Amino acid sequence: MTVSEPAVAVAHPNIALVKYWGKRDEDLVLPFADSLSMTLDVFPTTTAVRLDPAAGADHVVMDGAVARGEVLHRTVRFLELVRERAGRRERAVVDTRNTVPVGAGLASSASGFAALALAAAHAYGLPGDSRALSRLARRGSGSAARSVFGGFVVWQAGTPDAPDPDQDSYAEPVTDARLDAALVAVVLESGPKPVSSREAMRHTVATAAPYRDWLADCRAALVRMREALRGGDMTTVGEIAEHNALGMHAAMEAARPAVRYRTAASDAVLGHVRALREEGVGAWATMDAGPNVKVLCAGADAGRIADRMRAVTGAPVVVARSGPGAGLRAED
Ligand code: DP6
């Protein structure tokens, strides 16, 4: 038998406006609280999966280099799950191309596992709708559950006493949002991060006293955020997002020892965002597990905010708008 035709999937990163930080179940990747994000139209990941019945092990290539260590381990574990569900045994050849800088808080694991979930499910003939795909992507990386869908997306945490806890935690699109928002990403660093988000969130949950308050705040923030999206209220969306992100970073920094992704350069950008607001420009900051700052604003303001950020930081700046959900692609 020969190697099968590849299944090729494309997925985009997403940036959370109400963050996911902390798991109530590590193995099933179940979060403590719901989160809400916007899928972007930049930095897609393209993943091809083909089955090789003659191979004794999975072969994973990422951006042209053979994957090893943690990346390989997480990919193989994910493929094992797909094989188990599909009742198949063939090993896979996986070829992934990221256009997002890996590990810099620009969510490469979200686009990565959303694309891998779709390509692998297709290659192994695993049936299921997009909700099933979101649940599957979640097992690879929590935030990947959201990249299955485009636009604004909410990831339901699910309930701890559900009969099958794996089943009721998935993402779905926010269909009643009426807001044209953009994210202006100021790329301060694009190298790998010093501590993985997986490890950092585990450590925050275990050792940071303010984490519980932040989590309670997330639950309320999500309700208000959905209302603000419905009402097209950019200011409220921006305020909630900035408060939520800075609260998450404050909780991490209260961990023992502290987890610190913010750098002096990030703080300087946060200052520039505040200065913009003082001038009456609607701009709010959000940050993930890395030093880069993303400026949330109305779509119509993105161009001039990007120009300002370029001028004051000298750093590369990327304007991202609302992007599509994960999709299959015919191979070139
Ligand atoms: C700060 O989804 O990368 O970006 O589930 O352990 O793979 P794992 O974590 P991951 O964490 C993302 C954290 C965040 C916030 C968010 O995207 O909601």
UniProtKB/TrEMBL annotation:
GO terms for biological process: isopentenyl diphosphate biosynthetic process, mevalonate pathway. Its EC number is 4.1.1.33. Belongs to the diphosphomevalonate decarboxylase family. It is an enzyme of class 4 (lyase). Keywords: ATP-binding, Lipid biosynthesis, Lipid metabolism, Lyase, Nucleotide-binding. Residues 186-311 form the Mvd1 C-terminal domain. GO terms for molecular function: ATP binding; diphosphomevalonate decarboxylase activity. GO terms for cellular component: cytosol. The keyword Acyltransferase does not apply. Residues 11-171 form the Diphosphomevalonate decarboxylase-like N-terminal domain. This is diphosphomevalonate decarboxylase. It comes from the Bacteria. Coiled coil: none annotated. Pfam families: MDD_C (PF18376), MVD-like_N (PF22700).
